[in-house]
Amino acid sequence: MSHEHVSYLELLARGAATEAYDRPVLLARASGAGPEALAELEEAKLLALRVRAELEGRRRREAELSALFATAHDLAGLRDLDAVLRAIVQRARSLLGTEVAYLSLNDPAAGDTYMRVTEGSVSARFQQLRLGMGEGLGGLVAQTARPYVTDDYFDDARFQHTRTIDTAVRDEGLVAILGVPLSLGSQVIGVLFAADRRARVFEREQVALLGSFAAHAAVAIDTANLLAETRSALAELERANDIIREHSGVIERASEVHDRLSELVLHGGGVHDVADAVSEVLGGTVEFTEVDAGSVRRAEGHAVREGDDWVAAVSAGGETLGALVLSGRPDLDPVDQRTLERAALVTSLLLLARRSAGEAEQRVRGELLDDLLDAPDRDRRLLRERAARLRTDSDAPHVVLAARVDRAGGAADTDEGRRESADRRRLGAAASHLAATRHGLASARDGGTVLLLPLGPGESAADLARQTARHLGGTLREPVTVGASAPVRAPLDHPDQVAVAYEEARRCLDALRLLHRSGEGAAAEDLGFLGLLLADSRDIDGFVDRTVGQVVAYDRRRGTDLVRTLDAYFASGMSPARTKDELHVHVNTVAQRLERVGRLLGPDWQSPARTLEIQLALRLHALSAAVPGK
């Protein structure tokens, strides 16, 4: 045997790379070997490479068989389905040499598919992906029940691309993907994938190998389901035995709760009375909650277990109103479950009755306010009687408030109209509730809501407007703008003033929106000289007092000349030098007086908006002083 032939055996023995097999030929050619010797070496090289390929294939098949054997062993001792599926995915990724492998399962209840196990994934979005049935590459595999391979995912138009799936795949950086079905009989229950972040071709043997792993995964899932069904059947048998043993006690409890619930309904009991009665009978703690869990919606009228609690939906007409939650009784008898469900039904009836009464009261409040606005000449005695039935204090000063929801636009016309309609309904409901709690009135009007609310002790119209804007905005979680009128004394004695006050409130509301103060509440007194134009009362004295009242009062107490100094200051173009000439005083005296004015009126008194209001107030003050009797 020649030295070169020995070299090939050494290369085979140490598992050298393919390119190393060219070296003996190159050395022989360099040493001047003849054509026959070189041809013989080429033939030996090809034979060695065939042997190497055969050895590689055998090693690969041994590894595959070993992995499949290990997987079968895992199935034989199945305890944790997640651990078995994770091992299958890890082995598939390792043997196929891909960067990522993952397994998805169909969720018949939700009508979609979700990621169950991922290996090598770095994207949280990808790991939490849920996609509709029939979408993406996996959807095509599930639809055809056949393997599918693509060497460039985003350039492949043979399956349905969606934004959700493509975004997750792009986030993970996947390019080449192989998917094989997980099948139980003729039913596809999921898909097993192997993928790379670069273009690659999956060989037929690799597709077959991944299919073998998929078959193992399907068996694991079927075995786990059978175990779960067996455990469930055993649990049902145990519960049946418990029911038989406790049957007489259960019947007594059911009879007792039936009697107590009937008595509560007949005597006008409330939701919490029902919860207390059921708590006592069932020996746990029952509470009503408005939080609606997904399992409650899926319960279809039955009590369902949530951890150690039992939850029964309180619903009517397809609308979920809340739920009764029983804690402290994790092992609830089936008949006691029916008791909890019956209590939920009684609770829904009580809530519907309360809602109907509330809606009726809201309609009555709205109708009374509509009459005050549209027909103020109605019989005042009848108006007072209607107000008394609503527990409205008609003798207290009231404020009319106009409210609207203000949010950024940008939706399509139909969407915008639908959203505005929904906003008006929500605003009307929130305003009606506020009116009921404050013993006032509320009604939908002019695309918004109008309220007539009594003033509290020491409360001003501006205070009430700001409180109402905060309350309604917080309830709706949208900015609500509120304009308020001046107080109306005993509105039922002066119903004609309510409509006038509403117009003032609307003008104030419009002014706030024009001033880009959406989401705020204000009355005319908050808007300075603009309030004089908006208010029907034309409260000139009030405007003067709010604007320069502290300066006038200071002059009156101290005998100073701040008002005249301000007049001269503005007449001189806000020049201290010209002001001192006008007043015939030293410039330092002017500076001291203006400093005192700043302390009285605030540091921004010389801003353009404030100076305009101050000059107008000074003119009105001078006119008022010139009128006899003032």
Structure characteristics:
630 residues; alpha+beta; six-stranded antiparallel sheet; five-stranded mixed sheet; 15 strands
Textual characterization of the structure:
With 630 residues, this protein is an alpha+beta fold. It contains 22 helices and 15 strands. The strands form three sheets. It has a six-stranded antiparallel beta sheet, with helices on both faces. A hairpin with a 2-residue loop joins β5 (176-184) and β6 (187-196). α10 (271-282) runs antiparallel to α12. The longest helix has 42 residues, at 35-76.
Write a concise synopsis of the structure shown.
By secondary structure, the protein is α+β, with helices and mostly antiparallel strands. 58% of the residues lie in helices and 15% in strands.
The strand count comes to: 15
What coarse outline follows from CA principal-axis ratios?
flat
How would you classify the helix and strand content by structural class?
alpha+beta
Largest β-sheet summary? 6 strands, antiparallel
Total helices: the number is 22
Average pLDDT, rounded to a whole number, is 76
Strand order of the largest sheet: 3-2-1-6-5-4
The span between the termini is 135 Å
- Supply Rg: 42 Å
Share of residues in strands = 5-15%
Name the poorly predicted regions: 357-361, 532-536
Approximate helicity band = 55-70%
